[in-house]
Amino acid sequence: MLKAKGIVKRYDKKLAVSDISFQINDGEVYGLLGPNGAGKSTTINVISGLIKKDAGEIIIGGKNLDKNLLECKMMLGIVPQELAIYNDLSAEQNVSFFGSLYNLSGKKLEEQTKETLDYVGLYDRRKEKVKTFSGGMKRRLNIACGLVHRPKLLILDEPTVGIDPQSRNHIMESIMRLNSEGMTILYTTHYMEEAEQLCNRIAIMDEGQIVAQGTLQELRQIIEEHWFIKMRLIGEVPMDELRLIDGIEQIDIKDFNYRFSCKQKKNQLRDLLDILIHHHVEISDMSIDEADLEDIFLALTGKSLRD
Amino acid sequence: MRFFKVIKKEILHLLHDPETVTLMILFPFLLTWVLGTALGGMMNGGTSELPETSIPIVTQGSMLSDMYIKEAGNAGIVFEKMSKQEAESGMDARKIGEYVTIDNNSITLHTKNPNNIKGLLVRTYSDVFAQQSNIIMTAMKEGKLSKALQGSSMKNYVKSEGIQGNPMPGAIGYYSIAMLTMIMMYGAIQTIEIMHNEKEENTNLRLKCSPYSMNRIFYAKVGVATVALIVQALILMLANTFVYSVSYRSIIAVLIALAPFALFCCGLGLIIYQLSGANVKSSRGIVNLVIVLLVMFGGGYMPPEAMGRTMRQLIPYTPVGMLNKGLIQYIYNNNAELLSKSALTNLVVGLAIIFVSYIIYRKREGISSAANS
Q: How many domains does one find in chain A?
């Protein structure tokens, strides 16, 4: 559905996107994961024809974006990070207007407007002005306006930022449903849970570059030598001794919860238990985990996603 | 089809703000009445059949306050003298809604609701009175008015000037023209709002991502702003015709002559908005200032006859002054020559500034011709 090759974008002297390439297959949910300022939004803006790239090539649905801009735009549906809806119009007027920009008219526009509003759960409130809506409802309408013309590729730029859990769940469910119906989706987020839940493949971006991409399993293999011991410890924990255990790289503590980042399977667990038992520390809970996206990101960039 | 959808959307935006639309019509309508009746004595004409407005006034008694009360009668405002104590207790007991105090330094309206029509009338009348007094005081200091005031009143002094000796409109007639052009100028601000709406709502991102031409969206916005202004002018003219019995000779001909001016007003808003870097606050401020200057130098607040010689000579060369004078000549002398000149000038200047605004808009929005073919 989309091929991006060697995309470069500079703002004055700052390199916002540096020679990135990726491909999104038909019917796939592709995630762009990275902290704020990683270059996700710039990448999306280049793909959607909003800003001009300095180098590279973008092919959407087999069409070169530079040569077939209008055809490419027809295939795209955009859900910007910021709400992009008219507050003094009704939900129906908003969806209908944006639908009409994509050549929809008459009965077809009417039907697709109705279906789309129904899809995001706003049909019953279609006649109400948007300014009376809650933040979550506005977010859903924001998605509806990008969906009404049934795009082949839907681009969602952090659509769940700053909303309540209920609306967030609604949005996540809608996206999964759209994908199950065959829509290809490009999804940017800095919430790793969302990327894990939604995306078939993920690209991790940092400082304008894709530092890794693949399925979650493939990404895990990048740091396959890493594993994590989680414990809930009560008592006086001998931190100095724990830090000296061979193969433990980092210890994160939150309340009574300890997370030991281990490299290579040595005898870290046995050593840990020996020390804790020796010091009469109570272990109320324990688990051994695989790396999640946060760990992968940390391992690849040396910083946290929420930095 | 899509073009009409964009136009429909812009109209919906306008209609969803009925307060502004109503005010745009009501304000000049009331102002015409207040200014027309207040200055009716000065301009030898202009009567109103609207009911009188009665309001209490607290005054120590002075030449200025007597003049203020007397002239108010011409504006259909009747002041009832009372003591400050009576006025305050009346307000406390909710027997009166507002009252005015006047001394040699200031005129103050005391009201619990400054936006009601009574308050608006008194404020507008007071503004006009203050301006009028300033002009008279300045003229008196220069010794030009002393002779005229020795006789009856300032009425004769002003009346003798006339517009080139031709038949002249009464005060209501004059202000029904001056307020019409003035309120059309405020269309510049309406245009800024229409242009800025997309930026404010972030919808310009969505529009730019769509396959629809941003150029056409620009044209649609300019078109709607211009047509809205013409419609507002039409409503105001009809209201003035039916309520004040003002004659525009031919409303259609006047509207045709006003259309280029509507374009000019929209262009004025656009160019200032674009030159200010699409900053709505600063552009609104600049437009407000420009309007006041253009209206003032166009004889919108005061008839040229009530102004100094330099101003009288300058007024016909300003856009508003030329149009006002052209309208007066057309309506009262059936001479459309100046009006045609004014319409042509406004059309050329209006199109030119819209074109420049469009160039800046394209550059700012990063619109390439390929992207919007």
A: 2
